[in-house]
Fold Transposase IS200-like domain-containing protein.
Amino acid sequence: MKLENLEKDYYYHIYNRGINADIIFASDANKIYFLKLYKKYLAEKVSTFAYCLLSNHFHVLIRVEKEPKEVIQAFSNLFNAYAKAFNKQQERTGSLFEKHFKRIRLHNEEYLKKLVIYIHLNPQLHLSENFERFRFSSYQTIISKKETSLNKKKVIALFDDLQNFEYTHRHRSLELEEKFKLE
């Protein structure tokens, strides 16, 4: 698979998983640490619009704000720092993540909206967990009044307002539930 080049001022779906689909987050503390490193390495280089961390993979929706080489290096620093800490904690060696993080450039606002919902519904899709209560996605952050480095205003504006943001997520969630009941 040819990797998409990152370009400044464009939106990207960034994702990766553990090598051989293994666990990359063994605990909530691991997820908290990953988010702390993400902020350390990437907060000044990208705008973040959505994220979700599951036990064996993650998704992030970003807009590249700095030069692409800086952003790629920042992701590399994040993954290396996290892998070293995780390997030490878990008494393991070797690669933690699949070789290269995947990235898909978004080409229109409709896809951007669908991706925000997809990322937030990941706990339901993969774990059969309620996406609204899942701690390690940006959904709760977006609906809260807390200050955050997440670009909440832009995300909410995509859906016109907060009520429509919540409605479209719940509506899509119910559609998924119905689909899985029929299969």
Observations:
- The radius of gyration is 16 Å.
- The beta strands are 11-17, 46-53, 57-64, 102-105.
- The mean pLDDT is 92.
- The CA atoms of residues 25 and 63 lie 25 Å apart.
